[in-house]
Amino acid sequence: MKVEEIKPYSSEGEKARQVEAMFDSIAPAYDFMNRAMTLGIDRWWRRVAVKMVRKSHPRRILDVATGTGDFAIDLYRKIKPEAVVGIDLSQGMLDVARKKIAKRGLGDAITVQQGDCLELPFEDGEFDAVTVAFGVRNFEHLLQGYEQMHRVLKPCGMCCVIELSTPRNRVVRWFYDLYTLHIIPWFGALKSHDKSAYRYLPQSIAAVPQGEDMLAIMREAGFNNCKVKRMTFGTCSIYTGER
Hints:
8 helices; 21% strand
């Protein structure tokens, strides 16, 4: 089954609307669950991705599916661009992001807004870099999402995508499946009271294109010099490409 067909609540209806409702539901518990699910390693993954983006010296960065703003804040703190703009479907997640940004006194540098990644409300070539952290598997149409990110990039601009992935090693995969298919859904339901959200997570990770398959979609969207860096026994992949 394609990742676009994996939906949080029902096989009927638009994926985007279900994803929006899901993240609105789990927004208060999202940061805690993100740390717990990845054992805190997600911070390291983002640091590695920030270093990759920093090499392109971007002045304006768009963070797609910005969620609660962690990656947007990391990007600004480590790169110090002129501006970071975050966009997300979920108002609940953005409410959390705005509080974080205000608490850190970064309101003049980082702005966030609600919007659809499949119809980005920005001009062609408006950004030097576009990033996504753990969000592309939630796109209703993956290729269209990449095409939009390609459109808003300046020539030679960089796209950087962090996404969870499934390990290849059979021993690691056994422990990974035990953790993602059983422990995470149980713990997620206990903490967030939304069982469907944390059943959707491992299903969407298993279904999202990975490795060369993801790079092929990026190339189809128009990106060049596409590469993948696998992290932590293959449980995370960082994809990069250039316009």
